[in-house]
Amino acid sequence: EAQVTQNPRYLITVTGKKLTVTCSQNMNHEYMSWYRQDPGLGLRQIYYSMNVEVTDKGDVPEGYKVSRKEKRNFPLILESPSPNQTSLYFCASRPSGGRGYEQYFGPGTRLTVT
Amino acid sequence: KQEVTQIPAALSVPEGENLVLNCSFTDSAIYNLQWFRQDPGKGLTSLLLIQSSQREQTSGRLNASLDKSSGRSTLYIAASQPGDSATYLCAVRRAGNMLTFGGGTRLMVKP
Description:
The structure holds two protein chains of two kinds.
Chain A: E1 4-7, E2 10-13, E3 19-25, E4 31-38, E5 42-51, E6 54-57, E7 65-66, E8 76-78, E9 87-94, E10 104-105, E11 109-113
Parallel strand pairs in A: 2-11
Antiparallel strand pairs in A: 1-3, 3-8, 4-5, 4-9, 5-6, 7-8, 9-10, 9-11
Chain B: E1 4-7, E2 10-14, E3 19-25, E4 32-38, E5 44-51, E6 56-59, E7 62-67, E8 72-77, E9 86-93, E10 99-101, E11 105-110
Parallel strand pairs in B: 2-11
Antiparallel strand pairs in B: 1-3, 3-8, 4-5, 4-9, 6-7, 7-8, 9-10, 9-11
C-alpha cells in the first residue's frame, strides 16, 4: 500500500531533550515536507526537500533541523525542544516532474513539550 | 506573501443539502490548488487538485473550481451526507515545494 508513515504518533517530552520524528514514504517520491498544525494558525510548512541531500526552509524553520540522506526518509529533528513546539506535525510527499501532482500526507505526530 | 482564507470557518447543514465552501488567495502566481479533508485527530486526505491552467475538477459528488485571476476557488459538495462531516482545507502551491494552507472550514452534516 502506498503510504507515508510517521513515528512516533504521540510523544510527550521535556524541554531541552533532543528528539527525532521519523518520516518514510514508499512511493519513490522526490519531494518531501514537514508541516505543523496549530489551532488558529492552520498548517504551516517547516522544511521541505526536493531530493536526496537537497533541503530548504519553509515558513517556520526556527528550532528544527532536517536531513535527507535517503530518498524514502525525511526525519525531523528538534535539538532542544521548547513548549512552543507543542503541536501536531505532518510529513508529506509528492513526485516531481510537473505542477499537477498531489501531496500525500502521513497520519500525524502529536508532540507535547513540557 | 501568499495568504489563503477560507470562509466560512464552520458550517452546519442538514443531510441532503448541496453546499459550497470558499477559498481565496492573495497571490495568483500559483502552480495548483488542492482541496483536502481532515477528520478529527487524523491526517489529510487529498480530494481534488486543480492545476493553474484548469477551471474545475470533479470527483463523484465533489466539484472544485478555480478562478486564478480573482484568487478564488470553491468546493461544491452535492447531496451532503453525515459522513462528509470533517474539516476541509484548501492549499495553494507556489514556487519550489511551498504549500500555503487556509484555516479550514469545519463542516457538520446532520442526519
